[in-house]
Amino acid sequence: MKITLVRRVVQVLMLVLFCLPPLLAGWGLAGLYAGGDGEVATPAEGVFFGSLSASSLGPVPLFDPLAALELLAANGGAAMAALAGAGTVALVYALVRARAFCGWVCPVNLIGEGVDAARRRLGIAVPERVLDRRMKIGAAVAVVAASALVGFPVFETVSPIGAVSKGLVFGGFAGAGTLVAIVIAELFVSRRVWCRTLCPLGGLFQVLGRAGQVNVHINHDACVHCGRCEEACLADPVILAPALSGDDIIVRAGDCMACGACVDTCPARALSFSLGRLPARAQTRREERDPVSES
Known about the structure:
Radius of gyration: 21 Å
Number of helices: 14
Shape: globular
Protein name: 4Fe-4S binding protein
Number of domains: 2
Transmembrane segments: 71-96, 137-155, 167-189
Mean pLDDT: 86
Keywords: 4Fe-4S, Electron transport, Iron, Iron-sulfur, Membrane, Metal-binding, Transmembrane, Transmembrane helix, Transport
GO cellular component, one term: plasma membrane
Organism: Adlercreutzia mucosicola
């Protein structure tokens, strides 16, 4: 089965997961109460409840790592509980591949893929890249600093991720304007300009992604250098360059979303997922081709 198909199913299921608690408790979506006059449990009393910004799994709190840092900057010690919950989330994503959140969970990426398809159907051509992908790291630093200055989490008030996840569950659509702007930019300015270069949460996960243990591996003998993987890459084609040039055997950049788009599109099946941070550089390539026992 194509990885992309599995990934899209997971993206939809994640949205369903957050919508289920209020529905099972007899409430409606968008914060609306759909029950009758009888007493019903609140959705928060269930095993799981929340949004992508903050949720709980039984007694375990789970927080968006960037939101937790913003709270810490804005409120100091009052955010220590959020930091503990964020640490669990950050550790899991960092060990897998931090920007797997962007590829497999974030609803903005799912919408972006829909915009990609719409642009192709409409025949609209946009540049592949207009800004440096590392700008989003600066954006993450900026929103934390701004939160410290104003005393509240700045990005959470305009987050397009929250506009979807909080909107569906709680009816809070504060980031809807940002989401509309992203769709317009995706259609007419540049491909993936938000996810690649501006999203502060993506910037934080880009830094954590260097520790990821799930990596795209290349078989240099099978690669025909057709360029289709670069065309398919959702993160930024430049992250594939070291592997395609023969200087590395895995895609090492923290920006990789482990989305599998490059693996799916490779006609020679030269790309696959591997586990672990394999040794880098051309030396590894030579050893792979001509293994020699050490004496």
